[in-house]
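BUG: 3D viewer hangs when loading the predicted structure for this chain

Environment: internal workstation, default settings.
Expected: structure renders.
Actual: progress bar stalls at 90%.

Input used:
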Amino acid sequence: MRKREIVFVLVCALLLGFTTMAAAMGAEESASAERTISFYSGSPGGGWYPMAVAISEAWNKDISGLSFTHADAGGAGNLVAINAGKADVAISTTASIGDAVKGNPPFEVKVTKMQALAAFNPEYYTLFVWKSSGIEKLTDLKGKRLVPLPRGYTTEVLTRSILATVGMTYDDFAKVDHVHLSEAVNLMKDGHIDAMANAFSFKGDPNITELSIYKPIRALDIPADVRQKVRANNPGISEAILPKGSYNGIDEDVHVLGFALALAINADLPEDLVYQMTKALVENWDDIKLVSESFAAVEVKDMANPDVGVEFHPGAAKYYKEQGWLK
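Structure tokens produced before the viewer hung:
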């Protein structure tokens, strides 16, 4: 072989080696690269946080290259975080979603970067007092001490809306504490507040159960005219009944507000990733639903409920359509 040919062969071999090495390094870098998903839910003492942890664990198991951070800004605040690009996925409610897409308070602008990934279980809203308190209707709360939960939470937003329909504001209370749910329960038990608002499951909610075990509770009935006014302003709200016997002290059916728990997602996330997230959510549902009694009644096909208040992300819609759950 001539010298020129030998040099050519050596150069080709070196180039091939460099190309192979670069490809291997690129593959290794790709395999080790992670996408951090910012998951907004609720406070660790509430019911949403364990739901978020269970869902993220399922995604982490089935989808390589994902890691998660968890935060909490409340039902409405979680959607603001999505719109601001701070949150990738968030647990919220159709009540907050309805306000978000319309730009109702507390949303200063319409939330446009939010889409739906899944619909979950129905929830209920009202205010709770001790049965022995003498507080029997909304107007009896005037001059009392209240926890409506932190500002921006679905519960807090609904509380302000309901108070407004009966001509009340926070100024009509002796004290208003915007603390988290677990602290609100302790304040009730210690006698430091007279009433607390909550969004809850019709049975098995850990915080309401804890209160009712301590001593009998009363769920305040929300009158028909109040329910109608609130619903007229937010199509994500429905009428509901808290059945008697749901908790200790609930001795008759109570008219409350209803809405659904939902999983919202940032519209900018890639379709393929959201498809995988939806698939993993469905395929791991039997394990995920063990973290919450309210999840137990949710069938996987219910996740594609189109009444979630906003359109599904294309990745989620693609998966649901493949299953025949969404048209």
